């Protein structure tokens, strides 16, 4: 059982995902609280207007956000609110398509007891062989450190309550998908780390609704702009991001 509350984001229609996630958590002696996911396709226009900044998106994002991406961000926002409301020092957030691959309980207990400098800890690693900045032992053979580039996945993470409070206060309206937004950690003053070996990995992504990734691919296919213009926009975005990232990582 984790020392911090565990929150599981799940869309109401995704019953099979909920069953699979529940089985995984129970198998590792974890209790959890379900956070009903926001279905972006059912959001009224006024809610979208309060949540999403299309002008900021046009200036600072790679592509316009799709309805599922807006819903996904709002779902994580709800989980952050739950962490704040819990009164606990922090919380753990899962999307419902994960599988547990390591000693999750030990990792979460280690994070809850840790006094190191971090706001968010990713529990999944897309590049497990990449270099970590300021690595140190967390517990057993588990190492914690800052990835030079924050991985674009919000499958599972631990978040301290003070960081959740900042995110709730600063996030709305947002202009990028939530996983992309966390890559710009300096904008929200976050220290984002990850642990290795990662205790979770991506599981079954079958969904009753169109997934966020599927919605993005569909939007690209339906984009009236030429492939050349899309590539130019993507290159400009990437170069700007890398410039800002290197400046913050390399300069004192």
Q: Kindly report the average pLDDT value.
A: 91
Low-confidence stretches: none
What does the overall shape look like? globular
**Order of strands across the widest beta sheet?**
2-1-3-8-5-9-7-6
The number of helical runs is 9
Percent of residues in beta strands? 15-25%
Largest sheet report:
8 strands, mixed
Sheet/helix structural class: alpha/beta
Percent range for helical residues?
40-55%
Topology, number of strands: 10
Quaternary? single chain
How far the N terminus sits from the C terminus, by CA atoms, comes to: 40 Å
Order of helices and strands: EHEHHHEEHEEEEHHEEHH
* Rg (CA only): 18 Å
Structure notes:
With 252 residues, the chain is an alpha/beta fold. 43% of the residues lie in helices and 19% in strands. The protein contains 9 helices and 10 strands. It has helices at residues 15-27, 45-51, 54-60, 67-86, 104-113, 161-170, 178-183, 212-222, 227-250; strands at residues 6-10, 33-36, 90-95, 98-100, 120-122, 132-139, 142-147, 156-160, 192-196, 200-202. The longest helix has 24 residues, at 227-250. The chain is globular, with a radius of gyration of 18 Å. The model has no long low-confidence stretch (mean pLDDT 91).
Task: Quickly list its features.
252 residues; alpha/beta; 8-stranded mixed sheet; 9 helices; 10 strands; 19% strand
Topology:
Blueprint (H helix, E strand, L loop, with lengths): L5 E5 L4 H13 L5 E4 L8 H7 L2 H7 L6 H20 L3 E6 L2 E3 L3 H10 L6 E3 L9 E8 L2 E6 L8 E5 H10 L7 H6 L8 E5 L3 E3 L9 H11 L4 H24 L2
Parallel strand pairs: 1-2, 1-3, 5-9
Antiparallel strand pairs: 3-8, 4-10, 5-8, 6-7, 7-9
